[in-house]
Design a protein that fits this description.
The protein is 45% helix and 12% strand. By secondary structure, it is of the alpha+beta class. It folds into 2 domains: 98 residues, Phosphorylase Kinase, domain 1 (2-Layer Sandwich); 228 residues, Aminoglycoside phosphotransferase (APH), C-terminal lobe (Aminoglycoside 3'-phosphotransferase, Chain: A, domain 2), CATH 3.90.1200. Helix 8 runs antiparallel to helix 9, helix 8 crosses helix 11 and helix 11 runs antiparallel to helix 12. The protein binds 2-acetamido-2-deoxy-1-O-phosphono-alpha-D-glucopyranose and magnesium ion. Magnesium ion (MG) binds next to loops.
Length: 343
Amino acid sequence: MIPKLVAQAYGFDAQTDIRPLGAGHIHKTFLVVSAPSTYVLQRINHFVFRRPDLIMKNISLADDYLKKYHPDYTFLSVIRTNVGAAMVYDEEGYPWRLFPFIDQTVTLEEIHTREQAYEGARGFGLLTRNLEGCEVALFAPTIERFHDLSWRYEQFEQALAQAGEDRKTIASEAIQQAVHFSYLVDRYHQLISSGSLVLRVTHNDTKINNILFDRETGKARCVIDLDTLMPGYFIYDLGDMMRTFISPVSEEEKDLLKIVFRSEMYDALVSGYLEVMGDVLTDAEKTAIPFSGLMMTYIMALRFLADYLNGDVYYTIHYEGQNLNRARNQLRLLQVLSEQLGQ
Ligand code: GN1
Ligand code: MG
């Protein structure tokens, strides 16, 4: 099931139990049980991440810093191959890597309680907090302009210009809504060019299923999916949490009536985040807190919609029209957030 070169590099054999794991849109992930240890093995999508070496470099920079200054912090360190490399390339040129499986933990696809919202946000915030003081400039962007809203809007416009008539017609309502919210691009541009946000090392993919919760205590144990651990602004992390914690349903939900604003979850996540980041963020940054949720929800609406218009070339889909449904979901969420957060 996994390529020979990969199995050899990690010493797995025919007896090793390997099965698919998780719900990511980008990589292929496997759970590997090789007694007495359990691992997570991942094939990196190198069409999306053109420089996987930079991902591994960022992770190892963070790992070294955290081991030195926060030795008790649980961080997902890479397990090296039998020749000491952070990745191994398979016969087709795909890079693979291995992480420990963190036992007695669970992931959530939706937030059910305030405690989960608080804990999840505290957990993601703690990563950035513990990385305060490290040299941000040493970290390289693993995807250029990843959360640059102006760039994502341009990509959406390009997709629209190149799309076939059929997809444009089917998506016409979503396209209209996406254009309507383009004032957020100007707001984003103003915020960034005002220079009031500080560049830090951020996670950049803080959706709810990227953090492990302790099965027993419900406490946040460890953040996962470190591919976009790179320089960024706090609004990217806090905003993606708003995008995925506030609504009771995930970005996959097709029944848009189920997308509602749960103010108790908003309050819990902001207070969990500020519990650890409150004395790190400047007052000017704190004024951007509500905007973060709108900005990140909008960016995902644009990205899903652009991918639909491009013919579903980026995100894995399991049925026809899935990216359009995801975009509709995110546009509805954006509407709900903008009504409640008054932006
Ligand atoms: C992708 O890795 P995964 O599937 O968790 C995407 C994120 C989006 C997310 C939406 C590299 O994340 O930016 O927020 O889908 N990652 C990349 O579910 O594009
Ligand atoms: Mg990811």
